[in-house]
Amino acid sequence: MDWLLFPIFLAACGAAATTGSMFMPGQWYRDLNKPPWTPPDWMFPVVWTLLYLSAAYAATRVAPLEGSQYGMAFWAMQIAFNTLWTPIFFGLKRIKAALVVMVGLWTGVAGTTIAFFQLDWIAGALFVPYLIWVTVAGALNASVWMRNPGVVAQPAE
Known about the structure:
This protein is mainly alpha-helical. The longest helix is centred in the C-terminal third of the chain and has 27 residues. The chain contains 6 helices and no strands.
């Protein structure tokens, strides 16, 4: 394993995480009708920190392996969609558009999980919590969209 890769993958995760601090949920999100199973606000940064560390470590394990092309392509896909989701949902307040992005994110995470399992079971296992979290996040995004049909995008606060 090439440990010099870890800070590179972690930097990509950090760039995605930065959108979370730039586009905070705010009053608009608090006023939305959300399902009772919505995770508490404090959970999001804790979970995302662990998921980003795991994703960077998993990519560090897989990147130097022969045959890692598809896994790394899916890894790039998931981090790109991950970076897009927050500004679209919280910044532009486009719930439906964010759901479309979520489909891309889920596909990227699922593809990464499958591809990583084929190359390194630890790397694959490290992506399972991410797949579970993104599945819950996608269901939450869909539920918020369905529960708030009259909500239209507003300018950022």
